[in-house]
Design brief:
The complex is a heterodimer.
Chain A: E1 4-6, E2 10-13, E3 19-21, E4 23-25, E5 31-38, E6 42-49, E7 56-57, E8 65-70, E9 73-78, E10 87-94, E11 102-103, E12 107-111
Chain B: E1 4-6, E2 11-14, E3 19-25, E4 32-38, E5 45-50, E6 55-57, E7 60-65, E8 70-75, E9 84-91, E10 98-99, E11 103-108
Classes of the chains: A mainly beta, B mainly beta.
Chain lengths: ~110, ~110
């Protein structure tokens, strides 16, 4: 079974703090993704990566950056957290373009 | 037209009922299609892929209609445990899937 692990499940951060969300997958997948999900807005793609050190902007990259130094690890960084970044963040991976996407359990971030 | 659209519901059905959801997509070049299930405050999980010829997995049947650009999910003999939000996902031709916002299903005793 594919395993996508998000190490931080529940976080509370203060406005202006730098936030790191880590994600690791164990299936040697090429593609990795970061989404956020908010009520009524569905899943929105923040960034994705199709190879080590490669990244592409998704639909809502503003206020976020990512890092992929190793194939199995994809990190989402909030340089200066704001209250409108309070959300559920989902990491995902897939073998390649158009393939099934597998999600981690999610990270619930509250920015106060 | 939005890329992927779903009726948000909720669909309220009694146990044992048959229920169907549709999902329309705008990009005629889309190649792969999926249904995901998401329980409240949980991550989406793959329910089934959708093949051109249609496919069935137990009580669940998925179909693709390329001419009208929609996919469907049919659930027979609904169970209480089927209550969830069902997301469709479409590959519009580039490397990411595009998800619908989901259809909520509530199965009651």
């Amino acid at each position: 079974d594919v395993k996508v692990t998000q190490s931080s499940r529940y976080l509370v951060k203060r406005t202006g703090e730098k936030v790191f969300l880590e994600c690791v997958q164990d299936m040697d997948h090429e593609n990795m993704f970061w989404y956020r999900q908010d009520p009524g807005l569905g899943l929105r793609l923040i960034y994705f990566s199709y190879d080590v050190k490669m990244k592409e902007k998704g639909d809502i990259p503003e206020g976020y950056s990512v890092s992929r130094e190793k194939k199995e690890r994809f990190s989402l960084i909030l340089e200066s957290a704001s209250t409108n970044q309070t959300s559920m963040y989902l990491c995902a991976s897939s073998l390649g373009p158009g393939n099934t996407i597998y999600f981690g359990e999610g990270s619930w971030l509250t920015v106060v | 037209r939005k890329e992927v659209e779903q009726d948000p519901g909720p669909f309220n059905v009694p146990e044992g009922a048959t229920v169907a959801f549709n999902c329309t997509y705008s990009n005629s070049a889309s190649q792969s299609f999926f249904w995901y299930r998401q329980d409240c405050r949980k991550e989406p999980k793959l329910l089934m892929s959708v093949y051109s010829s249609g496919n069935e997995d137990g009580r669940f049947t998925a179909q693709l209609n390329r001419a009208s650009q929609y996919i469907s999910l049919l659930i027979r003999d609904s169970k209480l445990s089927d209550s969830a939000t069902y997301l469709c996902a479409v590959n519009p031709g580039y490397s990411t899937l595009t998800f619908g916002k989901g259809t909520m299903l509530l199965v009651s005793p």
